[in-house]
Design goal:
The structure holds 2 protein chains of 2 kinds. By secondary structure, chain A is an alpha/beta fold. Helices cover 32% and strands 19% of the residues of chain A. In chain A, α4 (112-126) packs across α5 (150-162) and α6 (178-191) packs across α7 (201-214). Helix content of chain B is 41%, strand content 19%. Chain B has a 7-stranded mixed sheet, with helices on both faces. A 6-stranded mixed sheet of chain B has the order 2-9-8-7-10-11, sandwiched between helices. The chains are: A alpha/beta, B alpha/beta. At the A-B interface, α3, β1, β13 and α10 of A face α11 and α14 of B.
Chain lengths: 370, 467
């Protein structure tokens, strides 16, 4: 049995762990030990989570595996306050649905330093490997423009720590300014130094459409790369991922080998990336978490873990979430293997059913972090 | 994936050839083969249908109703091969359990008889003959109803039978029709059209049923531009996009996202009738596995009866568990099952946070009852897979206020109240936007002549010509 550590002590310990980088694995017993201490802390510090676990008959003193820590549903962040730490330094909110009828999820973050400690090593490893730094062209609103967006906070941290300079090129709703982008890109091209473009799929589609409509020519310098994060969610014309990537190559001159997909959600403080830059373009479609984030696929009916390679609901165990709840059950479907996570796109020919179903609701596996 | 039968998801007018097929997974695991359609091919189909319109116009309306009825009745005859095939194919294509498919087929085909189609014609057009000739009307006017030259119908796949009903409605007013069913509803319109072609080639040639994935813009544009009447069933988004694609001169009939609810009066909450009411509530939830626009998503229970609202919610849960033996839940898609888990988990969290929330759920089946001890609801996500949210309400007089947030999407209100209260509550919910009020036992299968979403289903299709 492990007693609950104080939030500050646990957070400091995790920060040290994260500082070692996202490269090396964390041994099973070390992850287990940390996960169980984080669990004990969260039960002790968050009465709602404590009651949730108690109603399921789960007590920290009887849990011997991180796999048995109860998961909260991602939608729970919409309904209750899941805070396991001191006064939050930030409250990140999920976007509403397109119909605006849904309430927004809120993620209370007691210590932003821990979020930075988690996000930076991952970003460095998968988006800027080899210690690269380059100018950042962001289609994601700045943290000042979107203070409730965890994605904006993340890009802000990247801008502070990993970019040589940053241009914020979209408004607070994530609508890109195509002319400003063209000017920035062409300015960079004259200098010849590669740039990093970050954007949501939504923002990138809009940018590409504007460029097409207005006939603006853009050619990013060789070696430039793009980080694309999810979130079509019916906000834009439908465009498949391969189509988007093809369009980025054609219109921006960035080949698929330089486009990194990111998967993250407001409810998690760690993110997964496609290891395209380090492992080649064949890695596209496979998302790898940092070692302090573990992912399981669960049977949608029984919530039992499914064997590797079988489809299930993705359930995340994120140690960086020590200040809220670490285990989050999502509605995202995918397979999990030793090499990472494959997210399921829409099955060919599949369509949501129910004349009383809002399509957006069914398709919005992910709350866009915008 | 295990294949549970193979089904060709098309039926074309005579003379139209079919491009190669491509297989997709049906909701229940069947292999559904769809046409590899192109825009040019859809145009050919539309032309063939419009060409069949002349022969159709010459058939007296009553004769068409008789032919439709003869085919429709075959789906009710246990010994008829058409019904047997339907029952064989439905589970694999719809995802409903075989037992539920039987219930749904019975409920749907009940309305496809000659007798009921004639009632529908009479109620909506005054007389079926109005489709054949100018009839004398009031004040020395004469008028004739003319059906569409081509009725393009895009139907959602949530409830099997809706596409076949849509097909019959168009033919009933002498309109050749192209029906694009949703994936879960491909079986019945195809079988219905096959039956028609056997019965009378003139009718068979006036129908095309072709499945393609919804939102195939290029194909849909061709159909919408060829048609003079477009009927679209689906989410708000689907209806909006089809409306936008339709020419301004085309009549557009949209059946958008709809929500139904229910309410139980305190006088029902005592003695044996309580058990019956709980069973009827549970059955209304179970039919279509809660995917119908008539499926009650929220149920309010009035306070002051011998049985308290939360105790009644528990009785509904017990009834839902019992129904699993009779009418097992079908197969949920991964996305639907994921939604059920979120609803359950969120209910647990709300209870943990001290809210007056109770949760009952199937151990191995997805049925779920979430009771919340308040009256207000939060519209947004809908329930699937026999998930119902129950609330208490001080008095049913407050129901209009409780359902106000659903205005624009509200459809049926199911009621379990004493006879002498029915009209009063019905009038109140009508003012809140409901277009249908019915006892729980009747909500799943409205009659052929129901005014769907408050409008006459044939009146929407015809053009009156005054002379």
């Amino acid at each position: 049995m492990r007693g609950p550590g104080s939030f500050e002590a646990l957070a400091a310990e995790l920060e040290q762990l994260f500082a070692r980088g996202a490269d090396g694995p964390i041994p099973e017993d070390a992850f287990e030990d940390l996960a169980l201490r984080v669990f004990a802390h969260q039960v002790a510090a968050c009465p709602v989570y404590a009651a949730f676990c108690a109603a399921r008959g789960v007590a920290p003193e009887h849990v011997v595996s991180w796999r048995d820590v109860p998961a909260v549903p991602a939608s729970g962040f919409k309904h209750v306050e899941l805070l396991a730490g001191p006064e939050p330094e930030a409250v990140f909110a999920t976007s509403g649905t397109t119909r605006g009828a849904d309430r927004r999820g809120r993620h209370f973050v007691p210590r932003l330093a821990l979020y930075r400690a988690s996000l930076l090593p991952s970003f460095r490893r998968w988006v800027l490997p080899g210690g690269a730094t380059m100018p950042l062209l962001s289609l994601i609103p700045s943290p000042t423009a979107a203070p409730e967006s965890s994605l904006s906070y993340m890009i802000g941290a990247v801008s502070d720590e990993l970019a040589s300079r940053t241009l914020w090129l979209s408004d607070r709703d994530g609508l890109p300014d195509a002319e400003a982008f063209r000017d920035a890109a062409n300015g960079a091209a004259r200098g010849g130094d590669p740039v990093l473009v970050v954007g949501t799929a939504f923002g990138l589609v809009h940018l590409l459409e504007r460029l097409l409509e207005s006939g603006l020519q853009v050619r990013l310098p060789e070696g430039s790369r793009i980080m694309e994060t999810g979130g079509f969610k019916g906000r834009s014309r439908e465009l498949s991922r391969p189509a988007l990537r093809e369009a980025m190559t054609r219109l921006l001159g960035v080949p698929a080998s330089q486009v990194v997909g990111e998967y993250g959600m407001t409810e998690l403080l760690s993110q997964l990336y496609e290891p395209v830059l380090t492992e080649g373009v064949a890695a596209a479609g496979r998302y790898v978490p940092p070692p302090w984030l573990r992912v399981r696929a669960l049977d949608p009916g029984t919530l039992a873990e499914v064997p590797a390679g079988r489809e299930g609901l993705l359930c995340f165990h994120d140690l960086a979430n020590v200040g809220s709840t670490s285990v989050v059950l999502t509605e995202d479907v995918g397979t999990v293997g030793p090499d990472g996570v494959h997210l399921r796109g829409r099955v060919a020919g599949a369509e949501p059913r129910g004349c009383s179903l809002a399509v957006d609701d069914l398709l919005s596996a992910r709350e866009a972090t915008l | 994936m295990r294949r549970e039968g193979r089904f060709d998801a098309w039926r074309l007018p005579g003379g139209v050839t079919c491009p190669a097929g491509v297989s997709v997974d049906g909701h229940g695991g069947a292999e559904v083969v769809r046409v590899r359609a192109t825009a040019a091919w859809v145009e050919t189909v539309c032309e063939a249908l419009m060409g069949a319109g002349e022969a159709l116009a010459d058939i007296p309306a009553r004769e068409i109703a008789r032919a439709l009825g003869r085919v429709g009745e075959r789906f009710l005859d246990e010994d008829d091969p058409l019904r047997r095939r339907a029952l064989e194919i439905l589970p694999g294509t719809s995802g409903l359990s075989p037992e539920m498919c039987r219930v749904v087929l019975d409920g749907m085909a009940r309305d496809w008889t000659e007798e009921r189609l004639n009632v529908l014609l009479a109620r909506e057009l005054g007389a079926a003959e109005a489709l054949d000739d100018f009839l004398e009307g009031a004040a020395d006017t004469r008028a004739r109803a003319v059906g569409p030259a081509l009725c393009a119908q895009v139907v959602s796949g949530s409830v099997p039978g809706v596409s076949a009903t849509a097909l019959a409605r168009s033919l009933l007013v002498k309109g050749p029709t192209l029906v694009k069913p949703g994936l879960g509803d491909v079986a019945l319109p195809v079988l219905f059209a096959e039956g028609l072609a056997e019965m009378d080639p003139r009718l068979g040639d006036a129908v095309a049923v072709v499945y393609w994935p919804g939102g195939s813009r290029e194909l849909e544009t061709v159909a919408l531009e060829a048609a003079d009447v477009v009927v679209a069933y689906g989410s708000d988004e689907t209806v909006r996009s089809l409306r936008d694609l339709s020419p301004p001169t085309t009549r557009f009939v949209g059946y958008h996202h709809r929500v139904s609810v229910g309410a139980v009066g305190r006088e029902t909450l005592s003695g044996e009738q309580t058990v019956r009411a709980a069973t009827e509530v549970a059955e209304a939830i179970a039919v279509f596995d809660q995917r119908g626009c008539v499926s009650p998503q929220w149920v309010w229970v009035e306070e002051g009866g011998a049985v308290a609202p939360d105790a009644f919610a528990e009785m509904v849960a017990v009834a839902l568990e019992a129904i699993e033996d009779r009418w097992p839940t079908g197969r949920l898609d991964m996305d639907e099952a994921a939604a059920v888990q979120q609803i359950r988990g969120s209910a647990e969290l709300l209870r943990a946070a001290g809210r007056n929330v109770r949760l009952w759920q199937g151990a191995t089946s997805p049925w779920t009852v979430v009771y919340e001890g308040g009256t207000a609801i939060e519209p947004g996500r809908m329930c699937v897979g026999r998930v119902v949210r129950m609330r208490r309400i001080e008095t049913l007089e407050a129901l209009p206020e409780a359902i106000a947030a659903l205005r624009g999407h509200l459809q049926t209100v199911a009621l379990a109240v004493r006879r002498d209260r029915f009209d009063r509550v019905a009038a109140a919910v009508a003012s809140a936007g409901a277009s249908r009020v019915a006892p729980f036992a009747e909500v799943a299968f409205p009659p052929a002549w129901w005014r769907q979403d408050g409008r006459g289903v044939l009146q929407e299709l015809v053009t009156w010509v005054d002379a």
